[in-house]
Amino acid sequence: MLVGGEWTEERGKAVPDLREPEGRMLVPSLKVQDLIEEIRGAKTQAQEREVIQKECAHIRASFRDGDPLHRHRQLAKLLYVHMLGYPAHFGQMECLKLIASPRFTDKRVGYLGAMLLLDERQDAHLLITNSIKNDLSQGTQAVQGLALCTLSTMGSAEMCRDLATEVEKLLLQPSPYVRKKAVLTAVHMIRKVPELSTVFLPPCAQLLHERHHGILLGTITLIMELCERSPAALKHFRKVVPQLVQILRTLLTTGYSTEHSISGVSDPFLQVQILRLLRILGRNHEESSETMNDLLAQVATNTDTSRNAGNAVLFETVLTILDIRSAAGLRVLAVNILGRFLLNSDKNIRYVALTSLLRLVQSDHSAVQRHRPTVVECLQEPDTSLSRRALELSLALVNSSNVRAMTQELQGFLQSCPTDLRADCASGILLAAERYAPTKRWHIDTILRVLTTAGAHVRDDAVANLTQLIGGAQELHAYSVRRLYCALAEDISQQPLVQVAAWCIGEYGDLLLEGSCEEIEPLQVEEEEVLALLERVLQSHMSLPATRGYALTALMKLSTRLRGDNNRIRQVVSIYGSCLDVELQQRAVEYDTLFRKYDHMRAAILEKMPLVERGGPQVDEEAKESKEARLLEAAPVPTEPQASKLLDLLDLLDGPSEDAQHPRPLDPSPGGALVHLLDLPCAPPPAAPIPNLKVFEREGLQLSLSFVRPPETPALLLITVTATNTSGGDVTHFICQAAVPKSFQLQLQAPSGDTVPAQGGLPMTQLLRILNPNKAPLRLKLRLTYTHFGQSVQEIFEVNNLPVETWQ
Amino acid sequence: MARMGQRIEMRFMLLFSRQGKLRLQKWYLATSDKERKKMVRELMQVVLARKPKMCSFLEWRDLKVVYKRYASLYFCCAIEGQDNELITLELIHRYVELLDKYFGSVCELDIIFNFEKAYFILDEFLMGGDVQDTSKKSVLKAIEQADLLQEEDESPRSVLEEMGLA
């Protein structure tokens, strides 16, 4: 029974097959097209797989012991299946067999198979070298063509070395069909084995005289390959520039042939290739460039640009003009052609124009600037290929004179541009702003706008940069904090914006509340609103951990910037003490401890940041460190006004007075002791707790001292003065001063406040640091001034009953 | 503009349908099957996502891709270092013209059922990614002659039959 026209013989094996009637030994093999039909008929992926697996089984069997006459058909089917993504490696050896067959059909399919299934990564590939060799030397033209094609597609370096001589011979073959293929095979060989240049360079001179377009084209490609691999070859081929010019000229004027023309342009492929070679030869070479000037001008002005073919040639001409040492006029012409391309209705033309102009923007900046308006218009292109190019070019065209206008355009673009361009656009704008900002305020505004529009897409250092910028612009603090506050109130989702805003509000919260700023309209902000906003940021699920850190710190800073009581802040801080985020938790605990135990230090610690040196992402850390280092110097400042009054006090003590308020660091490394102090969550336990001492009491106002002798520094005594008020009236304008004997060093930290609220409200605390290197007996005198029940009070007294543990 | 040592090389050419079915793949650079599949899948996705009015060029990985849609088939070339995308468009168009002339108003089905022929035609037009012959006539003639050889080869019996001499 004949099905499909062909049979294969299965020796001694009955292969189960629906097509095969029971008991038959012969299995019909499908024609390629029938298989394709069957595969396409499959309704599901599974069905397709089944069909293919079954067929592959047939094919395998056929390869093993099937009719060699139909091997090519089996391989063809296998190649189809391979294209669908199924494995076909078992066909590799079959390719070899087919190639070795004398039949043309076999070779045709065999070579195709080799190109599809074999490459230099398989060991088997070398096995075809011999067949190729035979075919190259003894085959018919068609066969030689197949062999050459295969060699140039998948020939490995080894194969190329083996077959170079054969190919070289074929360059002289009478048939142009073979010669054209041999030339391109030589191109491939040189790419694989550059040393073969020595073999293929000499024939080029002769080949350049060819009339056959294909051979000429191949030769030019070959010469380009040679030149790009060897400066010597490059030099050698400069000689042929006049000849190339002639060829091209002939092509333009008399070489018109319907056979090779496209849309009225003579052989654009050949023209483009010649122009490319001229570019390589004319680059950095005055003489060669000179020789081609006229021709280039001719091509540039005479090429028909109504269709793509002409534009392709024109474009290549432009590229060549711009790359060689062309005359100035010619250069301008080239840039203008690109400018015209920008206005072309064909998107593809606009694309190549944008790409080329981008490459020119460094070398021919002013020429490209002339086309800036058109470039900016291209930002509106809905096609991202184009708008991306337009963006890159626009950014490259920003300079100090057009920065305002350009930034305006780019900001507009940023609002509506596709997502994959946002990051580039945002960082481009920020970079341009950094380079060319006309004023600081403009700079801040620009960054702010970028953060508002595309905050999620800015680079990490944008936050640091902006805080640095704002910090340094003191005159703009009020303005910045106001604008940032408003922006934040509108949208708390853009993290970089939120971070900067939080930082700013924390730093300059006092300016925010002050209400007046010349630059923008008056803004009435209540303390509660500010706190509420920061709390919102803290609680929002959109806030990153880092952002929440910023918010928490800002809240903390506000505790010294705002005038109201800090209960709300204290509440928040204590809540976050049990936050799951470890970083946040640590901060909260530290801040909470600051409130509870070291309240007198809070103002100093939370002071405004000094301006930091520009230095990358470590800015915040640096700021903190320098702040700590300066804290020691800063701390005594509030005590300065007390110094003069204290001299009176000291008169009362033994020995000549000393400037006990001189801000000398307490120990050689100021950071050390301070860091120690700030190590709040784990304060070192004192050797033995020294009992507190109540030292003063009057009308409900009480003063008590607590003592700490840190074990690491035995000479150091820390005294915390705590003032509490159980009376019905607030104690205000409270100042406490201290004096010690000459051999001691005393430092007063800033008090936590100057009000001791009535009815047992928040106590006021102040830290005294006393250095007693000689372990002399401690004497301490205190002077208090305050207002209570409308009366001014002053009290001076020496503290009695100081425990010996405070100095021994 | 100075890009020394930049060799214009076509990495590969793909033909695929709107449904993402591969119809032809010609690789001019040795790549593993696995890697090829990955690249093909990826590139198809990128190209199929393009809207009709967009330009024919896009950047993908470190390559430039020139593509054009003809009826239900996408013709895609990946080129590296090529400065002139416009001429690659011409190249694609020429190939389509050759197919069209050969099959007579070519459609996707022709290419599906005669994929070997599509390869043969491509291999007469390009070699190693470079144009071999800029004459349409010349290329078609070469295919014709090869087809003839194949016919003579394949079944001399049927030729005789045709001549009524069997």
Task: Give a verbal description of the structure.
Chain A: Residues 688-803 form the GAE domain. Chain A: InterPro entries: Adaptor_Complx_Large_Subunit, AP1_complex_gsu, ARM-like, ARM-type_fold, Clathrin/coatomer_adapt-like_N, Clathrin_a/b/g-adaptin_app_Ig, Clathrin_app_Ig-like_sf, GAE_dom. Chain A: This is AP-1 complex subunit gamma. Chain A: It is found in: Cytoplasmic vesicle membrane; Endomembrane system; Golgi apparatus. The complex is a heterodimer of chains A (808) and B (166). In chain A, a hairpin with a 7-residue loop joins strand 4 and strand 5. In chain A, helix 16 packs antiparallel against helix 17 and helix 30 packs antiparallel against helix 31 (567-575). Chain A has 808 residues and is of the alpha+beta class. Helix content of chain A is 58%, strand content 9%. The longest helix of chain A is centred in the first third of the chain and has 21 residues, at 45-65. Chain A is built from 36 helices and 10 strands. Chain B is an alpha+beta fold and 166 residues long. In chain B, the strands form 2 sheets. Chain B has a 5-stranded antiparallel sheet, with helices on both faces. Chain B has a two-stranded antiparallel ribbon with strand order 6-7. Mean pLDDT of chain B is 87; it is low at 1-6. At the A-B interface, helix 1, helix 3, helix 5, helix 7 and helix 9 of A face strand 2, strand 3, helix 2, helix 4 and strand 7 of B.
